[in-house]
Structure formats: structure tokens, C-alpha cells
Amino acid sequence: MAGILPKYALLFIIFFYFNGGAAGKSLGFSRVLNPATIGLKKEKLTHFRLFWHDIVIGRNQSAVKVAAGPATNASATMFGAVSIIDDALTEGPELSSKLLGRAQGLYSSASKSEVGLFMAMNFAFMVGKYNGSTITILGRNTVFSKVREMPVIGGSGLFRFARGYAQARTQKFDNKSGNAIVEYNIFILHY
């Protein structure tokens, strides 16, 4: 038993040394901070319900295909296609409803077996206290599933250190044009 304690003491000393010692001690290129020192207060949960308008064909086109892999033309899933978006985010399902912001980023068809998109986009808000703040969503979207869930991986402005999830539900999809209206319910933990 006496031989075990010195071994644990040595492990503790090694751990303490490699983790920078006491909290807040600098390693030269990094340091531990108290969140309050950069203005972070109590964390809160915010819910947004908004509508994403993806216009592939027609007036005010907001999604543009910029790449197509060799398999795109032969694939029912459009595997390999990449589109850049600047989609309206509105308060209601009508494009004429109040504009809350823009969804800017890209999506690509990343599945050979189903219409499964890889989505990387920022929801950039343009109204009220959220004006200038963004939410970053990155994840898989199986388009024909009733509800799809994607992670919120960060944000800026009022959404610094944000994390959470977004649920997408298609409200309207035109098979001929590919235009879509999708309801997003987003739940975000942030300071």
C-alpha cells in the first residue's frame, strides 16, 4: 500500500504540470479564462421558428448549382451536385412575409442511395436585437424524411458559443422546379 501512494503522487504531478498547473496559468500560447472576463453571463435557451425559401428555378433564384460530379446526370439522387445558397428566411411560409434574414452557404448531394444533402449554412439575421448575429448549421439533411435534425455548431454576435439543433420540415416542394419552402425550428443554448 505504501508503494502505491508515491506512484499516484507522481502521476498527479505529471498531470498537473502538463495541464498548466493552477487554473488560469498561462502555457505561453493559451490560458484558462473565467467566462465573465469576456462578458459572458448566464446561458439561455432560445427557440426560433422560421421559413427557408430555396428557389432553384424562377424569379429571384436563390440557389445556384456550381458543380456536378460525373455521376450527377446518371443518379436519381443528383449525387455530386453542389449548390450555393442565399435563401430568404421569413416569419411565415409565404415569401412575402416578414424577412428575418438570409440562409447563406452551400448544400451538396452526398448520398448515392437517397436524396441526402450535406448542408453548411449560416442563418444571418437582419432584424431586431439579432441583426448582425448568425447561427451556423452543419449536418445531414435527408430531404424526403418528414423531420430532419441538424446540429447548430456555433454562431456570432449574440450567438457566440452557441450550440443546439435545428429541425427541418418541408412545407412545400415542387417536383418540377425543385423549389422548396422548409420550416425550421431551431433550439439554441447561448450566452
UniProtKB/TrEMBL annotation:
Its main location: secreted. Keywords: Apoplast, Secreted, Signal. Pfam families: Dirigent (PF03018). Transmembrane segments: none annotated. Residues 1-24 form the signal peptide. It is found in: Secreted, Extracellular space, Apoplast. One of its GO terms (biological process) is phenylpropanoid biosynthetic process. GO terms for cellular component: apoplast. It comes from the Eukaryota. Dirigent proteins impart stereoselectivity on the phenoxy radical-coupling reaction, yielding optically active lignans from two molecules of coniferyl alcohol in the biosynthesis of lignans, flavonolignans, and alkaloids and thus plays a central role in plant secondary metabolism. Belongs to the plant dirigent protein family. Homodimer. This is Dirigent protein.
